[in-house]
Amino acid sequence: MSTVTDSDLKELKDLILGIDKKLDVHIARTDERFKSIDQRFDQIDQRFNDLQLQIDQRFEQVDKRFEQVDKRFEQVDKQFEQVNKRFEQVDKQFEQVNARINTFTLGFLGIVGVLVTGLLGIIGKVVFFPNP
Questions:
Q1: Which long-range contacts (CB under 8 A, 24 or more apart) does 67-75 make?
Q2: Confidence (pTM)
Q3: Count: domains in the chain
Q4: Tens of pLDDT along 29-41?
Q5: CA distances from 131 to 79, 125, 126, 127 (A)
Q6: What is the pLDDT of residues 89-106, one digit of tens each?
Q7: What is the residue-averaged pLDDT of the chain?
Q8: What are the φ and ψ backbone dihedral angles of 48, each rounded to 5 degrees?
């Protein structure tokens, strides 16, 4: 076989050193790419965190608005209850007035009936039994 000379060894050493330098460059580039990817992931995480905070704040605002609306509905319900009580009072007063009017009407019609009966009696006596 052939013998390995110093020049062959030097050439192999140079090739290995060249490949080693290229690998170092590629590793450095890959590390830079990984760092940039990590930075992007960190930025994305930060954006997600910011969005989560904004969403939480908006949900809190919506919850506060719902609570305000609920309070307003409770106030409106109380006002409706008061109005219903007033209507019930007015209905009771109408019933009382109706009872009074019915009593008055019966009394008035009774008096009118007595007067009409008396007048008919007088007219009947005059018509059927005239005085000579």
A1: none
A2: 0.49
A3: 1
A4: 999 999 999 999 9
A5: 76, 10, 8, 10
A6: 999 998 999 999 999 899
A7: 91
A8: -60, -40
Q: Tokens 């019609």 identify what position?
A: 109
Mind giving me the DSSP string for 81-116? HHHHHHHHHHHHHHHHHHHHHHHHHHHHHHHHHHHH
* DSSP helix/strand/coil, 3: coil
Show the tokens assigned to 95.
């019933």
Residue 1 has pLDDT above 70, yes or no: no
* For residues 117-131, average pLDDT: 87
User: What's the full length of the chain, in residues?
Assistant: 132
Domain that holds residue 58: 1-132
Question: What's the token pair of residue 71?
Answer: 């309070």
d(CA 29, CA 34): 9
